[in-house]
Amino acid sequence: MSSLSSDNKSLNDSKHLNNIGITEVNIYESNTQPAAEKETNLVSYTNDLEGENITELDDAMRLADDAKQIKITPEQDRKLVWKIDLCMFPLMCLIYAVQFMDKVATGSAAIMGLRTDLKMHGNQYSWVGSAFYFGFLFMNLGPVQVLFQKSKYMSKMLAIFILIWGLLLCCHSAPYINYPGFIVLRVLLGCVESVVTPCFTIITAQYWKADEQFTRICIWFAMNGLGVIFLNAMAYGLYIHKDIYTITAWRVLFIIIGVITLFLGSLIYYWIPDNPSNARFLTKNEKLMVVQRIRSNQQGFGNHRIKIYQILEALRDPRTWLYFFIAVTSNIPNGGITNFFNILLHSDFGYSTKDSLLMGMPAGAVELAGCSLFGILAYYCDKKKIPIWRYRLTWAILTGTLSLVSSCMLAYANDSENAKLAGAYLWYITPVALICVYANISANSSGYTKKWTVSSIIQAGYAAANIAGPQCFIAKQAPSYDGAKTSMVVCYAIEVALLLILLFLNIRENRRRDKLQSKEGIAKSDNFEFADMTDFENPNFRYTL
After folding, report:
1. Residue 364 needs a FRET pair 20 to 30 A away by CA distance; which of 237, 283, 402, 455 works?
2. Which residues, other chains included, contact 187 with Cβ-Cβ below 8 Å and sequence gap of 6+?
3. How many other C-beta atoms lie within 10 A of the C-beta of residue 148?
4. 117: left (phi > 0), else alpha (psi -120 to 50), else beta?
5. What is the pLDDT of residues 139-148, one digit of tens each?
6. Which residues cross the membrane (predicted)?
7. pTM of the prediction?
């Protein structure tokens, strides 16, 4: 096998390749020519992926030889994808809807009496929104990666975290809870919920091909909108019947969400497999077909050994930091809006409590329909090979621009309440840019340790931004919160610029690799796709745009 190198930086780690049984034949020689004359060379490798070093490889390697004999017809492919979608997707979507319900539940609870009952004043409510993400941030500074990458039972651990999360939600309704206790519960809730998106990103990479992943991530992420609809419908029903309960309506709201979460966590434990090789809904032949399908991803099911060189590679990869800052700029506004949207409807737009809960439902519909639609359009354009629009990053840039427009409408359309309200609703398509980041982690961060590392860094940025977001809503600026709205405009302008840079970087690197491959040629060894190589190491890897 050969690999690409440039500017004195080989794309391969020879120590790693030797460890997994790929023997280096022709070492890359340091180029001492002037920078302008440097020519990228290739390295050739022979391969022996058998024997005692199998633990260095991807779990899919155990099925790779048998899978290579499989010939998949288009009809078989469609049936298999449909079966995976049917067996995996509904439960993933419901979990994602519920995890967003409890994020925005505090906003509904706030206008249902939470702030009064817990005697909040000043900026204390802002810290309710931020507290959740302190726990989220802590877990993504290392614990999530160590716990879940090293475990061979990822889905079982995920289910246990979801069950704990359900219990914590029920504890939110404790009759004697005070403000400090509520803050502690929000921090703990952030700890256990932090595992959902990284695990779902990994699961998506295990079952679907790279060109299918963006659409799937768009759809399960769009379930945030379904969560908003259900939450506001429940909150409205509870509020108008608040006099019939022995406890306050907002406490009943948290109990209901908690019980739903416990039920779904139990289903996850029973049904979602730890990887496709032990999926009870797949036959032996279908498991081999899954391996053969994802071969084109240049990655498999994962490896449970944490590899330091892949962590270091993730840290020096410019894409990691572009993902990080895209996550930050898209989630500073998110942290504020998810906690203050109903409050804005109530105080800035002047709706009553009941009307504010009802008016929150269309926002969920916009997110549900918008994110799903953009994902489906991106998939359709990719299949039809439509220039520019076949790139997922194009759709991210488009929605980033719409986010900028919506935040300008919300911030500056002071002469028209309808325009401000339209801007507030249009804002709910903003997750597409963040979805693109998750899809890039799934498809473009190869090497299991590197994938988990990049995911942890992005989730840390997501958490930090959501901590900062509610703090932009300063109590002294109520009810309009003009400073927070201006910060949204600035964030989305930066986000669009970063997405353009990411698109340019990936196009340039793919062209560079194509040029080198056509010039020098690359010899492939059997099952190299499952050698747990990173995108830097693998010369056959191309970045999905």
Report:
1. 455
2. 131, 132, 134, 135
3. 23
4. alpha
5. 988 888 888 8
6. 80-98, 125-146, 158-177, 183-205, 217-240, 252-272, 321-345, 357-381, 393-413, 425-441, 453-474, 486-507
7. 0.81
